[in-house]
Design brief:
The protein has about 350 residues and is an alpha+beta fold. The protein folds into two domains: about 240 residues, Zn peptidases (Aminopeptidase), CATH 3.40.630; about 70 residues, RNA polymerase II/Efflux pump adaptor protein, barrel-sandwich hybrid domain (OB fold (Dihydrolipoamide Acetyltransferase, E2P)). About 20% of the residues lie in helices and about 30% in strands. The chain contains six helices and 18 strands. Strands 1, 2, 3, 4, 5, 6, 7, 8, 9, 10, 11, 13, 16 and 18 form a 14-stranded mixed beta sheet that branches. Strands 15-14-12-17 form a four-stranded antiparallel beta sheet, with no helix packed on it. Helix 4 links the parallel strand 7 and strand 8. Helix 1 packs across helix 6.
Length: about 350
């Protein structure tokens, strides 16, 4: 296990993590403004504990405009009672509370992307301080973390559960087992080269020896009841599987299609500023060189529309939601079956 981030957190709570029972409280993030000199940012947290056992850390609202996980964890915090548990469940349905309240991916306090700032800084920006608290306090208690994401305002996503490849074959096999128990239609295995790399919550959890599952459950800034149900059912199955909710009534998980992102060529980006007319939908299978649609230049005539073509074959796992795109915006992400050439 690597050394935890340096510095003592300034975030505090009256919640007693070692007390049996069910407690609702805030994490209090000090934040001073012109109108609130000694103010704090209130980040809701629930602790459900009953004796000895594993600790599950459940997080949503890492990005504020991703809603299925927030609702799933709010329901779970109300439904689960201490008598149901063996061990401890820590629930944070709105981890990046300022972003959640604003309905934004980034925090309005500092424009911080929480899932690109781990392990954080004890005396950094508000978002860095949240990342530091998770890294230095919450992960030190956890045996497993489930971080619930969706596509947010800019992407539509096929519901999926994601893992990072383990440091050993046995670790990867354990993660794949838990991903299959979770039961999202697609199980995506990453080598960590995409997205936020080593600065995501899943990456820092892995570095600290904590099992981590991540999801993508919907997107477009809306709410998917299907995605929320996948999250809720998946969490109950995983918590039952690891012994935290031993008597939970769950359905058997549906088949999970194991897939992977095959390098940076899986991503297709906008080359110009234009209006995006997609030619394929989520879940479509595409071939290398196939047209993914057109970008119509905002300048209008005489510039011609730009045709978008895929660099590789695969399944369309996510697609851009807003019609207007700027150079560098991600239009598509493809996944391929594990073991496929």
């Amino acid at each position: 296990m690597e050394m935890l981030p340096a510095g003592e957190t300034r975030i505090w709570t009256t919640l007693d993590f070692n007390q049996d029972g069910k407690q609702h409280d805030w994490l209090r993030l000090p934040f001073s403004t012109d109108l609130s000199a000694y103010g704090v940012i209130p980040i809701p947290i629930t602790c459900i504990k009953n004796g000895a056992g594993p600790t599950a850390l459940l997080i949503a609202g890492n990005h504020g405009d991703e809603y299925e996980g927030q609702v799933a964890l709010s329901k779970l915090a109300r439904q689960v009672e201490p008598r149901d548990a063996r061990g401890r469940i820590l629930i944070l349905p709105a981890l990046n509370y300022p972003a959640v309240v604003a309905g934004r991916r980034l925090s309005p306090l500092d424009e911080g992307n929480l899932n690109r700032l781990f392990p954080g800084e004890a005396n950094g920006t508000p978002t860095q301080m949240i990342a530091h608290y998770v890294s230095s306090v919450l992960l030190s208690m956890a045996d497993i973390v489930i971080d619930l994401h969706s596509g947010g305002s800019s992407l539509y996503y096929l519901p999926c559960c994601l893992i990072r490849s383990g440091k050993t074959g046995a670790e990867t096999a354990r993660l794949i087992e838990l991903m299959q128990v979770f039961g999202a239609p697609i199980g995506s295995v990453s080598d960590g080269t995409g997205g936020g790399g080593a600065t995501t919550l899943s990456a820092i959890a892995q570095a600290f020896g904590v099992v981590a599952l991540t999801t993508e459950l919907g997107g477009g800034g809306g709410f998917s009841s299907t995605g929320e149900a996948i999250a809720s059912q998946g969490i109950y199955r995983v918590l039952k599987h690891i012994g935290v909710l031993p008597n939970a009534e769950t359905k058997s998980p549906p088949p999970v299609r194991l897939m992977q992102v095959a390098g940076r060529g899986a991503y297709t980006y906008a080359p110009i500023h234009g209006i995006f007319e997609p030619a394929v939908e989520l879940g479509d299978s595409v071939e290398a060189g196939q047209s993914g649609g057109f970008l119509f230049p905002v300048e209008g005539l005489p510039r011609q529309p730009e045709e978008i073509r895929f660099a590789q074959s695969g399944l369309v796992a996510c697609r851009r939601a807003p019609a207007l795109a700027a150079p560098g915006d991600c239009l598509f992400k493809l996944v391929t079956d594990v073991g496929a050439n």
